[in-house]
Amino acid sequence: MKTLKIVLLFAFTFVILPKLYSQNINWESLQKNQKHIAHFNGHWEYALGFGAAYGYQLNSKTPVVLNASFSKPAGEKVLDDFKTRIGAQFRIMKINTFQVTASVQAIYRRYQNPLVRIQNFGSELGLNVGYFRPRFFIAGEFGFDKAILTNFKHAESFKTNFDPDVRDGWYQPSTGGNFNYGIVSGYSFGQSDITFKIGMVLSQDLKTTPFVPFYAQLGYNFRFGGK
Amino acid sequence: MRFKVLLFAISIFCLFIIGCSDDLSIHQPGNLVLKTVDENPALPSVSINGTRLHAEAFGNPKDPMLVFLHGGPGGDYRNALSVKQFAGNGFYVVFYDQRGSGLSRRHPKNSYTIDIMFEDLRAVIDFYRTDPNQKIFLFGHSWGGILAAGYIDKYPEKIDGAIFAEPGGFTWKHLEEYSNQSRGLNLFSEPVSDVMYLDQFLTGKENDHELLDYKLNISSSFTYAPGNAEGIEGPSPTWRNGSVVLNSLGSIAARDGYDFTQNLNQYNTKVLFIYGESNTAYGREGAEKEADFFKVSQVTGIPDTGHEMIYFKWNSVYPVVLEYLNSLK
After folding, report:
1. What is the pLDDT of residues A2-15, one digit of tens each?
2. Are the beta carbons of A171 and B196 separated by less than 8 Å?
3. Is B20 domain-assigned?
4. Interface membership of A115 toward B (CB under 8 Å)
5. Strands (E) located in chain B
6. Among partner residues A5, A157, A175, which is closest to B235 by beta-carbon distance?
7. Domain, as residue range, for A177
8. Which residue has the higher pLDDT, A50 or A78?
9. Domain limits at B265?
10. How far apart are CA A15 and CA B17, in angstroms?
11. ipTM score of the complex?
12. Could you report the per-residue pLDDT of A169-195, keeping only the tens digit for each?
C-alpha cells in the first residue's frame, strides 16, 4: 500500500504538472512573458538552511506558476538532510490590489543522524492574502505541512544502544504535521524581487511547538522571459 | 489547466486520508520504543505511590541500601548497571527508572511535580527497606544528583551518605548556567541541525509518549557529538527516554525555579562529589561549587572521561565510591 501511495503522489505530480518550485512571488509585477523564475534563499525553517528553486509560468488566464525546489539545513554533511518540493502556486482571487493565492506542494525529505535514516513523503498546502503593487507586496500567509508516509532505517548504533528489535520500515498514520502562519513581503525592481517572510510554527495539536517555533526567509527571485 | 491543478490538489488531499493496514504504527509500543512495565509484565517492577516503576535490587536485603538515581529527567538506569557491583561489597543495590522515565509507567504531562519525584524515592526506599535502622545511601548521576540533593534538603535525617556524579544544578540558576556552558549551539553545525531539522518529520501531541520518547531517543546523538563540552565519548545504552516527564519538570523548573540548598549546610555527613575531568562545562570548579553547600565533602576527579563517567570509566569510579561507602558503612 505504501508503494501505491508513493506512486499516486508522484504520478499525479509528474504527469499532471510538468515543472515546479516554491517561492514568494509578487503577482503584480510578474509579466506574462516572464516564463521562468530562478529563486535563491537563506532561511530558518526548523534549522538554519539554504534553498534554490525554479518556477515556470503557464500560459493561462489566471496566473499559475509550477515549481520545484531544493533546500538543506546547515551542517558538514552535504546530502544527509534535505527537502525537495514540487507543486504549483496559483491565484484564486483578485479584487483591485488585493489578491488571494494558494499553493500545493508535494514533499520528499530525508534526515540522517548517527542513529537513524528517515525518509518522508508529505504535502504542504498554503494560502496567501495580501496587497500587491508592481513595486512591492505584503501578504499574510497560512500553511500546513503534513508528514504523511515515513520510512525508518536504524543504524547499528541504535540497535546496540536502544533496541536490537526496533522495526525498520514504513510507518503510518502520519508521523507529523505543522501549521505555519506569518507575513510575507517583497520589493520588486527590474526583473528581480527581494522577498522576506517571517512567522510562527505550531504543531498540528495546536499546543506544542518545534524546538524553535518560528521561521524566516530572505529570498531573491530573478524573472526572465520565454518567447 | 485549472482542471489539472485541481486534480493535483485533490490527489494531495487524498494522501491525507488514504489509510493502509500493512504499515507499522509509530504509536504501537515495541515498534520504535521498548514497552514499559505496563505493556511488558515480564519486566521487574514495583507499584508504589500511584505508579508502577521499572525497578530491581541486587544483594542482601539486610545490607545497607544504595539507591541509584539516574539522570534526565526521563533517562534510565541501563548505562549504570555496573553499580550493582557494590552488591558484592555488602550493599543492597536498588535501581529504579523514575516516574515517566525509562521503562516505568507513563503519565500525563500535567500530573508531574518535583515533589512527587521525592515522594516516589521515599516510597521506593520504604518498599525495599527491611529494617528501620538500615542505612540508606544515595548515588545520583546528573539529574539524579539534583534529586538526591533535594531529597537530603527535605529529609536530611533519612539519608546516611550520598555520592553526586556531576549534578550540575542544585538551584535553577546553577542549572541554567551549566546548560548554557554544556549545550552551546553552533547553528551551522551538523549536530544542531540534526536536532532541529527533525521537527518536521516527527511531531507528537503533548502526551504522545511513544512518538515523543522515540524522538528524544534519536535526538540523543547530539549529546555525544565530536567536540561536545561535556566530554562524552560516545553513545551509551539506554532503554527509553521519557520525553513528557522531561518537558513537564523542565517547564515547572523554568516557571517556578527551585532551590534545593536551603538546608544542605545542616547535613553533617560527608558527601562525595565525582566529576569527569574531560567535562569542560563542569570540571573541578563545578564540583567544588556544589560541594560548598555541604559541611563536609570530598571532591574527586575521574581522569580521561566526561559526564558519562559511570559507564565509560567504571573501573576508575568504582574504587573511589567504594572507599567512600565503606567509610560510612
Report:
1. 444 444 444 433 33
2. no
3. no
4. yes
5. 45-48, 51-58, 65-69, 92-96, 136-141, 162-165, 271-276, 297-302
6. A157
7. 2-224
8. A50
9. 45-328
10. 22
11. 0.90
12. 999 777 789 999 999 999 999 999 999
